[in-house]
Amino acid sequence: RRHKVVVCRDLGPDVMPLLRERRELELIVWPEDKFCDRKWLLENIPGCSGVLVMLSDIVNEEFLDTCGPSLKVVSTMSVGYDHVKLPALAQRGIKLGYTPDVLTDAVADLSVMLALMASRNAKQTLSVVQNGEWPSFSWAPFAFCGRQISSSSQKRTITVGFLGFGRIAKATLARLVPFGINHVIFLSSPKSKRDSPNECAEFERQFGVKSVRRTADLQELARESDIVFVLAPGGPSTHHIIDEYFLRAMKPTAVLVNPSRGTLVDSDALAKAVHEGWIWGAGLDVVEGEPNVTADHPLVKEPRCVVLPHVGSATFETRLEMASLAARNLIAGVLGEELEHELGLQSYTSP
Ligand code: GLV
Ligand code: GLV
């Protein structure tokens, strides 16, 4: 018997053969080059053993009940899983495959890029050239000045704050250490197994910075940081964790960088914060309500707000790895083998 699997997006000529060459699979692929249509999906998933989804496909009770008891695995081509209702999967004993690690470098690169773009007025300066206005701006002592995020002379104290301190945050910090960052403050959920009593001292040695401090106080993170990186999972538990109260506590010279999920940030409060100068600027790869974010969005209109269309992992190298890992997770789950990257759902089984 062949296992029916549904793939919500064509993964391209380098990865689709991984799935097509498996004789055990009966493959159904969403045929268009746009978001998988929900109606099509619900018509095609009944009786399937596995589904490969994008972060735009909502995996909820309706989805799982429509698949029926044959479903063994959901494989998402993303590191984030806020589109997946974890307790519903856990209750049904369905495995969730995802794609951590392979995108860490690409997203960390983009995080640094966003910090630089936001602090150095990239949006305004690019538009001056784009609009043909360069001839009317001569090089002037303080034209287009932004904030400097480096201090190789170590004369300035630069504190980088991380909301969430997982793989991507650490890779971002590693990239910034040569900029002369000397202090780090982070707030993250205490459930990580690798945390030890000396974790901060260990991080200081690992990254070669003067001080690393964990805080449980969002206000303290906001007050002390010159750059705040939001690198935490989305979902209800982190909804609008960056709110007006947080933004008002930030330094007027500081920038906020969000490469994770738009739902963590209250967009209206952020637009107001940048517009009224509570903070210097923001670099966003994600916005609440995306992809329905148009040119008249308050954040898009803000000159000191750099908004990118969720491209953190978008390098050919990384997307190829994510797609093939998602395909391998799907195959393994359908065949009852161990997944390369399975999200543990144990903590979601109890009500
Ligand atoms: C991208 O946002 C991802 O979750 O992989
Ligand atoms: C800038 O181009 C400088 O020469 O200082």
Summarize the structure.
This protein has helices spanning 16-20, 38-44, 61-67, 86-92, 104-119, 122-130, 167-176, 199-207, 218-224, 244-249, 267-275, 298-301, 316-334; strands at 3-7, 25-29, 50-53, 73-76, 95-97, 159-163, 183-187, 211-214, 227-230, 255-258, 281-284, 305-307. The chain is an alpha/beta fold.
Can you offer a commentary on this structure?
By secondary structure, the chain is α/β, with parallel strands linked by helices. The mean pLDDT is 95. The longest helix has 19 residues, at 316-334. The protein has two domains: 3-100 and 316-348, Rossmann fold (3-Layer(aba) Sandwich), CATH 3.40.50.720; 104-307, NAD(P)-binding Rossmann-like Domain (Rossmann fold, 3-Layer(aba) Sandwich), CATH 3.40.50.720. Helix 5 crosses helix 7 (167-176). The protein has a seven-stranded parallel sheet with strand order 8-7-6-9-10-11-12, sandwiched between helices. The chain has a five-stranded parallel sheet with strand order 2-1-3-4-5, with helices on one face. The protein contains 13 helices and twelve strands. One glyoxylic acid is lined by residues 55, 78-80, 103, 312-313. GO terms for molecular function: glyoxylate reductase (NADPH) activity; hydroxypyruvate reductase [NAD(P)H] activity; NAD binding.
Describe the protein's topology.
Blueprint: E1 3-7, H1 16-20, E2 25-29, H2 38-44, E3 50-53, H3 61-67, E4 73-76, H4 86-92, E5 95-97, H5 104-119, H6 122-130, E6 159-163, H7 167-176, E7 183-187, H8 199-207, E8 211-214, H9 218-224, E9 227-230, H10 244-249, E10 255-258, H11 267-275, E11 281-284, H12 298-301, E12 305-307, H13 316-334
Helix pairs in contact: 5-7
